[in-house]
Amino acid sequence: MIKSKKLNRFQNINHAFFNRIGGKSTGIFKSLNCGPGSADKKKNILKNLTIVKKIINPKSKKIILLNQIHSNKFHFIDKNSKILRNKFEGDALITNRANLPIAVLTADCAPILIHDEKTKMIAAIHAGWKGAYKDIVIKVINFMIKKGCSPKNITAAIGPCISVNSYEVKEDFIKRFTKKNKKNRIFFKRINNQNYFSLNKYIYSQLKALNIKKIDIINKDTFKPKNNFFSARRSIGRKENDYGRNISVIMIN
Description:
Blueprint (H helix, E strand, L loop, with lengths): L4 H4 L4 E5 L24 H15 L17 E4 L14 E4 L6 E5 L3 E7 L5 E6 L1 H5 L2 H11 L7 E5 L9 E2 L1 H10 L7 E4 L2 E4 L1 H11 L4 E4 L14 H6 L8 E7 L1
Parallel strand pairs: 2-3, 7-11
Antiparallel strand pairs: 1-12, 3-6, 4-12, 5-6, 5-7, 8-10, 9-10
């Protein structure tokens, strides 16, 4: 479990980026797999989510998750919102409700946790390259601003994800990003005739462009086994038939 130093200074919220340690799952899902969409035993996933909930807030009824689809779609949960068995589909959750843990699941994609210290609004974002390319982060921040948040009051933490040195991509991938903006070339580097992409720096640049200055990047490469995170790319390389999901959670106390 990792905390953002910048988010950790706020007493009114609790948050954490969890790795794969400390759960009940076995085999390729060992041990804190929190992904209901995985082929893991459902009872183990529920036990793991309960473990996480107890760490974040034992009094909360449940952690709110999404059916993630690599989109730019988000949901705002206020006091009037009805929560029906985690039926949210999209890639970000925003709330101003207390004691309601919101979370995203990742396995190389970037989790982003956001807090506005004046409005007390929070957000949890799942951003793989598709979501980042489709501006999920920008759309969430702009929505929060419309709801009264201000860039000067927002703190954002980009959690553990696949690092540039592990994220090999093909030429058409680069062309897609540079066609959108020629300046996107800076997020790619070439090593031994192979191209690599920096997902967290791309997201960081999007936040900076929105005048957000309080940004924490947690530089832990999910692809490297020593860091103890689930990694889709690593599992595919090993020809495993599935992989676990890391959970990142934030809640207003």
